[in-house]
């Protein structure tokens, strides 16, 4: 991309003084590039609309995408907690109404405190604290291991704050080469896309039996996917991929309803507010989560999962920052997501969100950051809009039923997260050295999981055993051995403890 900033613009002048109206630029893209280049957001200080940033209509896209994505993720998390805890404890019976109420808690308080206030006004360099997607499949195992959501949140928050304080997150990101990062993104994109495509086909094939109809709807998934492939390809061709989530989601709804597959779409979540009293959720064993306050056994059971979750933050954060670097123009370092600040935000969001009754396991908000980066927009304005949308959805209720409907859920995640991840990973594999690191990272991910693959290939790559051998010569002993070695040991031990290494019985 070209540098659209004028040479005569004083580098020390304010954002207000350097701002120019969109009409002065040849294209909308040039205007957005210029906005990114002149912004200088303050860290942990007040940032104001007009003075430090502006709202643009492009900010609506990541806000809508993030709202859809987080509603889907939160619903999956709370349903998994409810199922696992009900199976683990005889006195616990948590159903669909419980899950909806907890989703509403998570969408109200954290949206206000950490989307609008924190990332919107206080530190626009910190990405929002969203959902830790890779941990969702583990939640049932976490519950069955005897963990307590509040104990897990406290430990995760403490570990995250320690890592952020010692700048560990940014250190790990800087030590991850483009080849390793590219391989990680390719694997995550491919596996995520495969999962959502399979889920969509399973949904359409199962409608006949589920609703006792005498005709098949198994073709609906294929038609939805085929149409959206064309829509997504056209948007990519004209440079408007940031419109993919809303347009493709609308296309999925229209096609599904038009072909008679709307049997699952029911509006059952009525308007209202959840109970926002922490005592209700954690004060006793006969209301809320029905678990009471955590004890020492709960903390011990939660410990390995908290270590694992924080260990998985660095590759997650890395993928989101890469999207900014790939899509932003030159001289935009001041608006790039700060990894350590994001870890700080996520840590506080984890503790506060769970303390008031939530159950989310947080991480950098990918369904917001990826569309925002593609749309070439900084964090603050979209974060404020996203927070407002989450609050409205939580209060109104009915939109939650649309966002968790399978065609919308799968298509939104496909075009908004997994396909962009796949594309970004392929862009990062630029030469033979990168392809070697990427290939081994993908291979290791198939053998075990993405976290193991990232930790192992980072260690090998930084020592010149794979990838660019000359790069290893420029690194210190600490960067080659100590930091990657500790990351590998911690990740491996944590995964072994909870049974995430194939063929090795869990240690707890």
From TrEMBL:
Pfam families: DUF3360 (PF11840). The chain crosses the membrane at residues 60-81, 102-122, 142-165, 172-193, 213-235, 242-263, 299-318, 379-398, 404-426, 438-460, 480-501. The keyword Secreted does not apply. The keyword Translocase does not apply. Residues 1-25 are annotated as: Disordered. Residues 16-25 have a biased composition (Basic and acidic residues). InterPro entries: DUF3360. Keywords: Membrane, Transmembrane, Transmembrane helix. This is DUF3360 family protein. It comes from Motilimonas pumila.
